[in-house]
Amino acid sequence: MKPKNTGIQMTAKVLLFINGVPPKTFPDLESYSLIACSDGAFHYLKENGFPLAQLDFISGDFDSHSGKDENVYQEKFIYTPDQDKTDFEKSLEIIQKKGFNKVDVYGGSGGEMDHFLGNLTVAFKFKEDLKITFFDEYSKYFFAPNNLVLNEVKNRLISLYPFPSATNVFTKGLNWPLQNETLDITNRIGTRNFAKENEVQIEFEKGNMVVFIGNKELT
Questions:
Q1: How many helices (H) and strands (E) does the chain have?
Q2: Contact 87, 59 (CB under 8 A)
Q3: Taking each helix axis from N to C terminus, what angle separates 113-126 and 87-97, rounded to the nearest 10 degrees?
Q4: Which helix (H) or strand (E) holds 97?
Q5: Nearest alpha-carbon partner for 137 in 116, 164, 114, 161
Q6: CATH code given to domain 14-137
Q7: Which CATH code, of 2.170.120.20, 2.60.40.1120, 2.60.120.320, 3.40.630.30, is assigned to 143-217?
Q8: Distance, C-alpha 43 to centroid of its chain
Q9: Is 73 helix (H, G, I), strand (E, B) or coil?
């Protein structure tokens, strides 16, 4: 059973499904204090046998919902009709109001790539208040703090993507190290590197960076 939500949930995690490519397997639901999904994601959860009773809320405008499952779980719907915001953004606002600050997101990539870029932009808006980690079939990715240590990543793909720039970037443990260099989306980015050590250190002085960590060891 999930722990109860009481006050500010600084160590508890939220599991959020949004309307990208569905995960092939679901994570351990018992490790989350709150589980939610956006309007569109409700469909693929239902089709893939997700235990819908585990959902704490479903947010969206629900213009595409109909059927017995929607009626059964109607009390968990949070109607968010604002067309100036995506369902992802509106879900994060609800999560933030509930006092959580750590969110694992599934369904953030795949399909139409403008959605993927839009989801990154939404995550950027919340990066000071929410620690958001995306998971997909290939990797996990997140906005990195200025000082970051990755463990148990030897032979994993590591990509550093400036958003839109990061200055004085230093890395240790990558096959192609960076020594106080600048990454910029219009000039030089740091994708398709890999870890040659179990521990990788990444530091940068200013700017923003998305770090991608491959799910599998490179062969």
A1: 4, 13
A2: yes
A3: 30
A4: helix 87-97
A5: 116
A6: 3.40.50.10240
A7: 2.60.120.320
A8: 19
A9: coil
Query: How many residues appear in the chain?
Result: 219
Closest residue by Cα to residue 36 from 8, 71, 73: 73
Locus of tokens 């369902």: 87
In 3-state terms, what secondary structure has residue 214?
A: strand
Domain range summary for the chain, segments of one domain joined by +: 14-137, 143-217
Distance CA 31, CA 133 (A): 15
Q: Do domains 14-137 and 143-217 have the same CATH topology?
A: no
Strand pairing report for 102-106 and 14-17: parallel
Q: Which residue has the tokens 């703090």?
A: 145
Report the C-alpha gap between 59 and 34 in whole angstroms. Answer: 14
Q: What gap in Å lies between CA 155 and CA 79, rounded to an integer? A: 44
Is the distance from CB of 65 to CB of 59 less than 8 angstroms? no
d(CA 36, CA 55): 5
Q: Where do the DSSP E strands lie in 107-146? A: 131-135, 139-143
β-strands 57-60, 102-106 pairing: unpaired
Please write the tens of the pLDDT for every residue from 156-204: 999 999 999 999 999 999 999 999 999 999 999 999 999 999 999 999 9
pLDDT digits (tens, 9 = 90+) for 114-146: 999 999 999 999 999 999 999 999 999 999 999
